[in-house]
Amino acid sequence: MSRYLWLCGLYHPFSQIDTHEPKTSKPVSSFKRRFGYTVAVLTSLLAILDLADYMTYYSRDLATWDFFVLVRFVKVASTTAQIPLIMLILFLSRRKVFYLERITRIGVPIITENTVARLQKRFSRFAALWLAFWFIIYCIGATGHYWPSISSLQALNTPVKFLGGTVRNYFSILFSVVSYGIFINASIASQMFTLLLVIHLAAGFENIYKNINSKITLVLKGEYKAASAATVLEVELRSLQLLQNLVRNFNDAFGFMILVHCIRDMISVVGIIALFLQVFEKQDIDESDADYAQRLDVRTRQTYWDWSITSITLANTALRVGACLYCHSKVRKIVRSLQRHRVESQCTQLQEECETALSDINEETGAISAGGFFYVNLDYVGAVMGMCVTYGILVYQMRDQKVAAADNVKLSHLQRQTALLQTFVQNQSQLLLSLIRNNT
């Protein structure tokens, strides 16, 4: 996983101090660092260039201040704008990321080597299939979106605007598809990395829960000494504190990157609501049937493209949030187990150890933080659901206003046609009267 992240410019090997791995030569280490930095800088510059081209291309549409146009622009641009931020965050926290990445290879002392190897093997397969699947979805969406432009050589050679200049259409399409594919790949890869770390942390909390539950259960059945169980509980408490420190280090290294992803997720939520409630413009009075059919086809293909991009974003959102909730749920299982055993145990020492363990566990234990602003837990999910309802009502109101505006435009056209018809009839009547008078 680290090699793929390094190729994407997301992972920068910092040092090999205090590791048990064979040290590489200085030229190789220098090459790895320089390559990672170069890829990160080039990807960030590409994102800035693509964002500038996107803003130039849609500047005329943005000038209308149409709500649905603005939502679509912000939704698509957010995926591009997040890439330089992700690259910068991972570069600044590269030392912490380097040491946390070791967890995915050697694990934490709480997890056995077999568990680490099994997690690594399963997750590598899953990550490869996940990336491949959504890359196929992206290619299908891009092909459908650009099909009218790539279906003929004449369309490919048509001059189009690009950053204030003029280029061939095939260059613009190639630049957009390749660059946006790189951005989506970087976004998914960064989330896969954090997902792998969270799964390892969750496995550590699960192992602590099993050890506590098994030993104290034997004490309650009379098959194990209460003093020995208290000693085991003290050991597991130290392991829990170790995992708490790892979670804090994880939040320090990846917290702001998760915050960037969460902001982009909220934008995508508004975007998906806008896609559900979008309104297609009606045919203008001066617009021919062929022009209207072409405009409708472009809008439909654009909608399919939006659906593919939004689906990729929301699927990765669900996966990331689900992993964070899974990790936090393991801590809640530990809390419930300690509370139950504190009540059921007759050993004072064991009760004190349970009480001490519970006093050290709070809402931060096992919770993934988004830059210290909030935790990705059930409260966050509830807030997002509430935001969906709020923005759903807002978008629906905007939709009604747009439909009413379209109806008013249609009514004004009808009134104008009626006025023109009345004028025409009056002119014809006056002309007919003048002809009759002249003949008489």
Helix-strand makeup class: mainly alpha
Number of distinct helices: 13
Structural Rg: 31 Å
Percent of residues in helical segments? over 70%
- Percent in strands: under 5%
Please report the total strand number as a whole number.
2
* Distance N to C terminus: 100 Å
Q: What strand line-up does the widest sheet have?
A: 1-2
Indicate the overall shape: elongated
* Spans of at least 5 consecutive residues with low confidence: 407-411
What's the order of the H and E elements?
HHHHHHHHEEHHHHH
- Largest sheet at a glance? 2 strands, antiparallel
Mean pLDDT: 77
Notes on the structure:
The chain has 440 residues and is an all-alpha fold. It is built from 13 helices and two strands; from the N terminus they run ααααααααββααααα. The chain has a two-stranded antiparallel sheet. Strand 1 and strand 2 form a beta hairpin. Helix 9 runs parallel beside helix 11 and helix 10 packs parallel to helix 13. The radius of gyration is 31 Å and the shape is elongated. The termini are far apart. About 1% of the residues have low confidence.
Short synopsis of the structure:
By secondary structure, the chain is mostly helical. Helices cover 81% and strands 2% of the residues.
